[in-house]
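Hi all, long-time lurker, first post. I run a small reading group and we've been trying to get comfortable going from sequence to structure in the token notation. Rather than ask abstract questions, I figured I'd post a concrete chain and ask someone more experienced to write out its structure so we can walk through it together at our next meeting. Sequence below, copied exactly:
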Amino acid sequence: TIISKDGREKHLQQMPFMIKTSKSFLFNITRDVTNQFEVNNLLRKSEWNYRRLFESNFEAILISDMSDRILKANNAAAKMLGFNTPEDMIGVKIKNLYNDPSQRKMHLNLFLEKGIIEEFTIAMKKANGSDEIVTIIGSAVLIEDEEDGEKIAEA
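-- Answer (accepted) --
Happy to help. Here is the structure in token form:
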């Protein structure tokens, strides 16, 4: 990091390399990576904000893959559905939490047709083995992940 003549902070990346012939030459290529540094900093802040919103939300939020497995859940979802932690929910098939698993198929078909479901009502079983049924009014949207493809976010 250096300070430019106009007082702005600049971030530089240096890449030294050596060329050996009958003599050795040491070269150093320096490039300004300030924009990349700033974009990465903004991305980190955005990810931190998203994580805080996701984890501290009082609404249950689940993210699943297209094969119906839970990839991520927040504390509210774990508490509502009788899991000890959100991590305990990872890998669980959502349809196994439905009081009527055939409802899940209906919801998925509707979701795949429209890409969004607003205000659907479902009855879900608690994972802790209690007989209590949880009625959830929620919505679902399609989100895309460049690494893993499409996912469903439900709240």
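A couple of things your group might point at:
The chain has a mean pLDDT of 83.
The longest helix spans residues 34-56.
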